[in-house]
Each structure stands twice: as structure tokens, then as C-alpha cells.
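Structure, all two chains, one model.
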Amino acid sequence: MHTASPHWTAVCSLADILPGTGVCALVEDRHIAIFRLAGDQLYAIDNIDPRSGASVLSRGLVGNLGEQLVVASPLYKNHFDLRTGACLETPEHSVRSYPVRLNGDSVMVAPG
Amino acid sequence: MKILLIGHGMVGHKFLEELAQLRQPGTEVTVLCEEPRAAYDRVHLSEFFAGKSADDLSLVAPGFFENSGFALRLNTRAAALDRRARTVTTASGEVLPYDKLVIATGSVPFVPPVPGNDRADCFVYRTIEDLEAMTEAGARSRSGVVVGGGLLGLECAKALRDLGLETHVVEFAPRLMAVQVDDDGGRILRGKIEELGVRVHTSRNTLEITDGARARHRMVFADGSHLEADMIVFSAGIRPQDILARQNALAVGARGGIAVDDQCRSSDPDIYAIGECAAWRDQLFGLVAPGYDMARVAARHITGQTDTAFGGADMSTKLKLMGVDVASIGDAQGRTPDSRSFRYMDECKRIYKKIVVSADGKQLLGAVLVGNADEYGTLLQLALNRIALPADPEFLILPASDGKAKPGLGVDALPDSAQICSCNNVSKGDICAAVADGATTTGALKACIKAGATCGGCVPLVTQVMKAEMARLGMAVNNHLCEHFPYSRQELFHLIKVGNIKSFGELIARHGKGLGCDICKPTAASIFASCWNEFVLKQELASLQDSNDYFLGNIQKDGSYSVVPRMPGGEVTPDGLIAVGQVAKKYGLYTKVTGGARVDMFGARLEQLPAIWEELIAAGFESGHAYGKSLRTVKSCVGSTWCRYGVGDSVGLAVELENRYKGLRAPHKIKFGVSGCTRECAEAQGKDVGVIATEKGWNLYVCGNGGMKPRHAELLASDLDKDTLVRLIDRFLMFYVRTADRLQRTSTWRDNLEGGLDYLKEVVVQDSLGLAAELEAQMAHVVATYQCEWKTAVTSPEVRKRFRTFVNDGRPDTRIVFVEERGQIRPARAEEREAASAGAAPEMAV
């Protein structure tokens, strides 16, 4: 998790993300997947799947495996921890996560 | 070492398989096969008449001879043997030397020596060529007689009935299956067989066959009566083919057959005999299991492994003759001195059961079961393993009453050495080991240790052993969908349907826990669609859909999507083709004709999909559901409309079927094929549902598959009119949709279906579960509520908005980069993509 003092960018409104799904935002040339889970909890990780190089993680199905909140890559179904970006099946394919928060109705992400 | 094998039947081939597995270096193996084709499954020969082809019956795995290096010579008969020179001379005069000779020549059908037995249209029932000749004769006959009321004779009677002939069985003995059953059993069996329209004539001694008055032949019997028929098939037993032994002074058994020792060696230590041509302690074995056993023993002994010996075989059998269960175990006739028997007979349902027990009542010696053989597995194990009988052994065969469970045989009571599958010599211990290695379905056990893979009689017991072992190992004997739902897909389907549940929130609140995952969400979405058929991208359902269903396209390796408009039956107008071409050209898409006979366009970016589909819809196209676990295509040949051989309008039917079932969500994708005649140009027998036109209507095949594990479809019903055909497909599909596991194609579902094809026929054709009306109604609902998902999607601004690459930026995805190949685009490889994105602005990437 990135911990330096973040600079926040507004990317969309909460209504732009259907509950239980993700979207991809382009922030400072980064493709960032932002997910909206139950209770309007937001999570952000890289959108690019390291295994394929395709920008697709926001299109995966979200859910939980045990205690972990995860998204399954739509291409090869490997799971990424939404909080940390860790890939559960092959740790070398882990991605990074980003701070994300809700400011009023605005979804803010810190690409840092 | 030069090994020469004479005979490439089931046992001969088993010998080769064993030999290949032992991988002895320096062996040179030559196989002489008198027949024009390699080994095939003679046990299931009658299925040839139920639609199986010679290829289906083949026992030779693809590449077997190429990989093993064994040389197979078809159409080559061994004419002479010279033991001193150690050579075999073929019918064409070629002389082949051997170090070890293996004779697996099987047997020849016994034809009673009556005058006229060699008339035209008199047959024996042994090879595929015999069957082909019978089929040809059957087409110009109205009636047929089988001489012989034994096991093979009744199989043969089924074949004649399948050919549509008035069928008679003539038996010399006073009852059918005289060897395996007793008088009462024979009587019940006869009633059953006659119920099926076969006329049985017992105690008939044929004197001669002459010209008939009303049919081609007349059989004249010793009692003065006669019987006329157009064709006659002799199936009055078999005799070992031991002529090579007799010509060369090898010892033969008292009832014929090449005499062999426990290592399957004849009186010449360099010559082995296995299978039906061999006599072990004067016993002949007309079953495949002991033959396989001999093949194993001979192969091991020849390659220097002296640890195995043939020790005789249990001749118990269980079979289904024309749908009638018949089983015989051990001393079925009660010939053991002082043995006693218990019998149960139900003349209404035509069921007969008898057990023979030892004088002290502690051991089961034999049994006969007719009409229902559910207890076969239990009784056989009790007899073979000498397990002590319960105090009241009669309850083993009496019907359960008052809801009391029958005193079954706990499989735990079986020793590890108990043979469960006799065809493939699989013991309880083998099954347990395979389970420990992860084979936890009957399908997996068939694949890895061949348990239940030959005759299938032991499958219920195999399943029992498997489940017990899984429980013992603490393996989840559950087929729970995932950690969120303690239910199988089938159970979940039931809960959703009965509970009228329409959202995932409600489903998980009532029956599950957690948030769900990529397993249960799409499964629930599919069940909701099968039950209620609401728009899949409706707000509450959208988040459950797999990416393909969420964006109504197949995601490709680079994150682009493919676009497949439906072309029902593979039929498309020139204007339609032009429209597809124009769309592909406008959006720069790669185009390819698919195996399902339609056009696939690749390389569409997310934000392009709605515009592309708007244009396709305007040109009259609908979603092809190529992205869904749903009906894909109905492939067709051109049929009687154009083809000079066609007997049915296959394209017309294919279009109709595709339009009926389009949009149906299922546990996995479903493919259909419709052929206009038996030439089968649409390859319908490789599809989940295959339909083939006949002179009298349509034949319906189910559960075929191509792909990774090809499986020929099986005939479910024949000569159907269209309404009946559609009704049966409705039932079949809905039964599959309800009961299959997730991502289980019909072929795997069928392989794991307890009761197999017979059960499927009972449920779908005979409606044994009383479900038919419900299944049809459910399908009617799905058909009536069909909508083109793309049409709904492009006309809904809320849904359409979801098709964007970036939520905050209108530019396209820079990771999608194409290069040109053979005049079209293809996704750039990683290094090509990095080079392109380093130089070019995103808009220029295409």
C-alpha cells in the first residue's frame, strides 16, 4: 500500500459505478480499476493484468474468498486482493493498490 | 524377441495394450487379423443397430499402433503353423517367424447341422460384416427368426426388432437362457420378452429349412409344427476356434479349446492361447473379463514377469436384454449338495429373484435375478468374498416395506482385494487409491482406472465405494458450489425455483453467506435466467455476470471483444453478408467463419460495441449469444431442399430449432446439429443435441461433444415427427439445465448420470419422474420471454453508458494494439505493443 501523502484526483461520481462492479479510470497515464462493494466501500488497484498485459481487471467479478475481498481476472480467473493488489494464485503477478475515497458524491483516487 | 499374435479381437487387443504398457525393449510384435478392421467392442455389438458406427465400437485408441510400433496386418488369416521351424504361414503364403506365438482366435458361431442352414439370408451374429449383411437383408424382410434363446440370441433378437422386423426366438431347451436362469426365472423372462413383441418358441427342435409359402424360409420342427420368416440368424452358442492347435498336435480340452496352464501356455511352451479359444482345466470362458485376465497373464509371462497366474473366473453376469434386467451369480441352479434357496416372484410386475445359500445358511452360493437386478452388486460381493450372511437372508431380495432400508452390504465390509469391476480387473483398493489421487467422480474413475468403463454393470457399486472412500478420507463428499453456498448447483436451482428467488441479494441472505464470488455469481445469474428469463443486464443482475455476459461479447487476450451475430442454421442472405462485411470494414475488425457456421468479428473495443451492434440490428441481425453459457449454433447441412441425397429439410428445422432455443441459459454452452440424411454432413452426432432425418421422420441424438474429449452422441429416440421431436428436446434441455453441475457439458453430465442412457430415456421419453409437463412448461416460458439482449442494451441509455474504456476519459484503450497479418488485423505481441505505445498517440494505435 502506498503511504506517502497522496494527491487526490476526482475521477467520477459514485453513481457511475454500479454496486458490485468496477470501472477503469485513466489517471496520469495509469489505468486504475476502482471497485464499489457493499456499503459503498471503494477499492482501487492497477487495471492491467500482469499475466496478459491487457487492461481488464475492472471487468472482473468481485466477491470474497475467506477473509479476503477479491476480484477475479476476466481472462484467466486469477484472484487479486482488492486491499493490497496481491495475486492469490501467483504472487509474482501481484499489482499495486491505490488509496481511494469518497468525497461527497465524488470518487477520489490518489495515483501517487 | 519376435512376438506373433493371431487374432485381433477384444482379448487380442487387451494383450497388446498390456504389452505396450510393459514396454519391453527389443520386442517386435506382429498382429494377424482375419477381419478387415481392427479390434472392436463385440460386447456392445447390438448397439450397431441402435445407431453406433464401426468407428464408435473400435477399441483401438488413436495412435496406438503408431506409438507402440506394433505391426497390424488386416485381412490376413493364419493358415498354417510349423512348430518346429517356429513359423506361421498366412493364407497368401507369406511365412512369418516367431519366438513366442499368442493365439487369440476367439470362437466361431455354432450353426446346428440341419439341412438348409446354408440358404441365402441365413446369418450368424459375430462380426460387423455379419451385422452389415443382416442390415441389408433386414431392409428387404418383414420377419426374422433367431435360433437360440441364450444370452447372445436375445441380444440378436433385439437387433432384429431394432431393424423393424416381426421377431421370433426359437430355442431347443424348454426355457430361455437355460444356462443362467432356472425354470421360474425363465418363465418370467419369457413373459417380459413377449411383452416387448418378440414371439418365443421353446422346446423346438429344427429338422430342416425349406422354401416358405408366405416368407422366404420355412423352419420345420420335430413336433410337426413350422414357422416362416424372411431371414434366419443362428445364435445357438459358440465353439472355440482351435483349428491351428488340432492341426499341430497341441493338446485340446475335453470340450475343445487349446489347453493352457495357469500361465496361459499351451502344451508347446512357446505358444500361448488366450480368450475364448483357450481351455483352462477343461473350462471355456465365453465372457470378456476372464479373456482380459488371460491377456494380462500372458503378456506378463512372455515379458519375463512370472508373478501372475490365471486362476479361473467367476462366470456371474448381469445384463440388460431388450431393457430387461437379467443376472446370474455362481450356482444359480442350486446344484451344490444340501444347498437351500429363497425365492421371490411377482407375476404382476414380472420380477423373479432367487438366492441359493449353503446348508448352514451362512454363505451365498448363487442367485438369479430377472426383471430387476438392483441387488446384483451386493449379492455378487457377498458370494465372491464369502461374507457371512445376515440372519434372515430373504430380506436381501424381498422388496423393502414400511420404509425400512434393505440390509445392504456396507462397502466398508469389502476387503481391499474385492474385485469391483471384473471387465477391467479393478479392485476396491484400486478405486480407493484413485480417489486419494483426486478422482472423485465416476467419470474420472472411468478415465483413469477404467472402473465401470466396459460393460457398466458395476457403476452403482463403483460409486458407492468412491463415496465411502471420500467420506473416510474426510474429503468433502459435497458438491457444494463454493464457500458461499452449501448446496450443489442442482439444489440451488431447486431453492431458487421453489422459493421464487429473483435476486442474488435475496439468495445469499436466505441460503448462503459472504459476498459471493466468480463461481456462484454467474451460476446464480444463469439459474435466474433459466427460471425467470429477465434481461441479463438489468441493474440487480448485471453485477453477477461474467465479463462476457456483462459486455455481451467474448473477451479476447488483449481485452478487445468479438462480435457474433446470429445466423440461424448457418443461413444468411447476400444482403446480410454484405451488412456484416460493411460493419467489419468500417470498424476495422478481423473476420473469420466459425466452426458453428457463422461469421465472427474480432478486435472491437468496449466503447465500439453498442454502435457496431446498432448497425447489425438495423440490418436485421440479433445477438448470437457466442458469449453466453447458452445455445450457440444449430449447424445444418443443406438438406433435401437442394441436396440430391437429402430426405429431410435440415436447414428449415435448424432455423426453427435455433430460433426456439436461442437465449436459453444453461450450465454450459449448447450446440446443435441437424443433418438431412444419414450421410451426416452437419456432424450432428458430435453435438449436445443432434437430429438426423430418416425416411420416417427424425432421429434424436443427445450428449455428443467435439473438442477436448470427443464423445459420440447417443440415440434417444427415432423416427419422430417434428412436434414430438421438439417436445423431447424441450424436456431433455430443461432436465440438463436443472440437474447438471456448473460448467458441465451434456457429455460429462451424461457420463456421470447414474443409470446412464436408459435412465435418460426413462425420464425424457417415458416420463418416469412425471416431470415432462413441468419441463415443457418451463421451456415454453423461456421461449415466450426471449429478447435480443443487444437490442435491449443499445436502446437503454443506462446500460449503454457501461460500455466505455475509461470512466473519466473518452480515449480508447492504449493497450489494444493491432498489427497486420494476411491482410487483416491481429493483436500485437507484447514486444510489438510496447514499441507501438512508446511511439504513437493512443488514437493512432489501430
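Residues 429 and 480 of chain B are 27 Å apart (CA to CA).
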